[in-house]
Design brief:
The protein has 465 residues and is mainly β. Among the domains are: 32-90 and 168-190 and 222-237 and 264-283, no CATH class; 97-156, Roll (SH3 type barrels), CATH 2.30.30; 301-330 and 363-464, Immunoglobulin-like (Sandwich). Helix content is 2%, strand content 58%. The protein has one helix spanning 97-103; strands at residues 5-10, 34-40, 44-55, 58-65, 77-79, 83-91, 108-114, 121-130, 135-139, 142-148, 153-156, 169-176, 180-191, 193-204, 209-220, 226-235, 253-256, 266-267, 270-274, 279-281, 285-307, 313-326, 340-347, 353-361, 369-391, 397-407, 413-419, 427-431, 436-439, 442-449, 453-463. The strands form four sheets. Strands 14, 15, 17, 21, 22, 23, 24, 25, 26, 27, 28, 29, 30 and 31 form a 14-stranded mixed β-sheet that branches. Strands 2, 3, 5, 13, 16, 18, 19 and 20 form an eight-stranded mixed β-sheet that branches. It is elongated, with a radius of gyration of 34 Å. Residues 1-17 form the signal peptide. Keywords: Signal. This is DUF4139 domain-containing protein.
């Protein structure tokens, strides 16, 4: 037998493959029932899907399409009156042109060619010999290799293989006590769903007030759309058998942790944020939902300048611009804040909001005193000068420091000066203005600096070195 090798060029199969209709919902429909989704901040989610099943009595196999493509099958439970689970399988080999050809190896398909000049079609039966790196067919006594060259060729399949699904599908063998319609609750854990919180803050310096809006951003990469879902967000990171949660990053500071109980429902040590109404979380989609909207909350702008140790920093360094506010019920936001990013805006002379900085905020309970750094001040600078270091004994020194500040603004400012790196046995000998020991290794002073002027603070420390 003489075999002739012929290169046949085809356009991509995605637009031309024909299959028998599958018993799945239309693309704009879903097989899901009443869906509730609980999303944690560590990328884990709990899905509860209540479906109405029409079952015969005895043993039967039931398919559950439209589950997450990343379902953790070991976490699946199915409950319903009179139902028992015998076996379950998760079919995640999804229908695609490439998969269809792979499953067709050894089977016969129909090749349809169209003459570009006349439009006439010719059909031939072909056996698929291979589908790895290219499609190899046997047509009668010849072997053909299908390649993509834009010529009008398509492949027709008689059916979809049984183990190939149009959508992620969970197959469960059930034992039903009696025939009839049964409400069954399918529950499972899945990665691929997540949420983050972002905040938009509008600061009014003249009124010393802020407007704050909080947004939740939902992401879905599970391979499945959850339609009209009841969504509950959990602020916190449940343990996953040794896998750590998300790190708390940020430039913000909780100066004083809150001690007020928030208005949110709690679950153990986690806060719950239910969305106000049902929503559809489409696959490969980001969705934003508002969860906080507070107007005219008291806030103040300050400048912070920190010295790391008792040494000279003669080059002027900008003070940090910081906004301070509270999450307290009285005089604050009146809510706890999930960790996220705060983006701060101010209105210019034309009344248009302009972006002035952003900061990561750690999770803050209600009643917390918050300090948000938005950037460095262009016209408020400071320097530290080691004036004198005198030895008092074999282990004690007297260190004199001077902190110099300049203000090129047309209005006076107050700089919050902080000296870090102090040990518990460092003693304060003299100071030109009163300060406060806020911790074992930190002293703070509030330094008024006049408009277009200068100010200095001198401090003498008794130290070990």
């Amino acid at each position: 037998m003489r075999l002739t090798a012929l290169i046949v060029l085809v356009i991509p199969f995605a637009a031309h493959a024909q299959v028998q209709p599958a018993s799945v919902p239309a693309p704009d429909q879903t097989a899901q029932g009443d869906v509730a989704v609980t999303i944690y901040q560590n990328g884990q989610s709990l899905v509860q899907d209540v479906r109405q099943l029409d079952l015969p009595a005895g043993r039967t196999r039931q398919d559950f399409p439209d589950v997450s493509a990343q379902i953790r099958s070991e976490t699946v439970t199915l409950s319903g009156p009179g139902l028992g689970i015998v076996e379950q399988n998760f079919d995640y080999d999804l229908l695609s042109p490439d998969k269809l050809m792979e499953k067709a190896v050894g089977s016969v398909v129909t090749i349809v060619r169209t003459n570009p000049a006349t439009g006439a079609e010719t059909r031939e039966q072909a056996r698929v010999l291979a589908a790895n790196g290219g499609i190899v067919l046997q047509i009668g006594n010849r072997i053909e290799v299908l390649r993509d060259d834009g010529l009008p060729v398509r492949v027709i399949f008689d059916k979809v293989p049984e183990n190939l699904r149009a959508r992620p599908t969970l197959s469960v063998t059930l034992q039903a006590a009696r025939a009839g319609r049964v409400p069954a609750t399918l529950t499972y854990l899945t990665p691929g769903l997540g949420w983050t919180s972002d905040y938009v803050m509008l600061f009014d310096e003249a009124k010393s007030a802020i407007d704050m809006q909080g947004w939740v951003t939902l992401t879905n990469n599970t391979g499945t759309t959850y339609r009209s879902a009841d969504v509950l967000l959990i602020a916190g990171n449940p343990n996953r058998g040794g896998n750590g949660g998300l790190a708390q990053l940020g430039d913000s500071t909780i100066e004083q942790a809150g001690t007020e109980s928030g208005p949110r429902e709690t679950l153990g040590d986690y806060y719950l944020y239910p969305l106000g109404e049902r929503t559809t979380i489409a696959n490969a989609q980001q969705k934003q939902v508002s969860f906080l909207d507070v107007k005219n909350t008291p806030a103040r702008k300050t400048y912070e300048w920190t010295n790391g140790w008792l040494e000279t920093q003669s080059d002027p360094r900008s003070a940090a611009t910081v906004l301070k506010f509270s999450t307290s019920k009285n005089g604050g936001l009146g809510d706890q804040l999930p960790s996220g990013t705060i983006r701060v805006y101010m209105r210019d002379t034309r009344g248009d909001p302009q972006f002035i900085g952003e900061s990561r905020v750690a999770a803050a309970p209600m009643g917390s005193a918050m300090s948000i750094r938005t950037g460095d001040a262009f016209d408020v600078k400071g320097a530290a000068v080691l004036v004198e270091r005198k030895r008092l004994s074999s282990s004690r020194w007297r260190t004199s420091m001077r902190y110099d500040f300049t203000n090129a603004r047309p209005a006076p400012v107050t700089v919050d000066l902080a000296q870090n790196g102090l040990w518990g046995d460092v003693r304060l000998v003299e100071q030109s203005q009163p300060g406060e020991r806020v911790s074992a290794d930190r002293m703070e002073w509030k330094v008024p600096v006049p408009a277009n002027g200068k100010a200095s603070v001198t401090v003498v420390f008794d130290t070990r070195y």
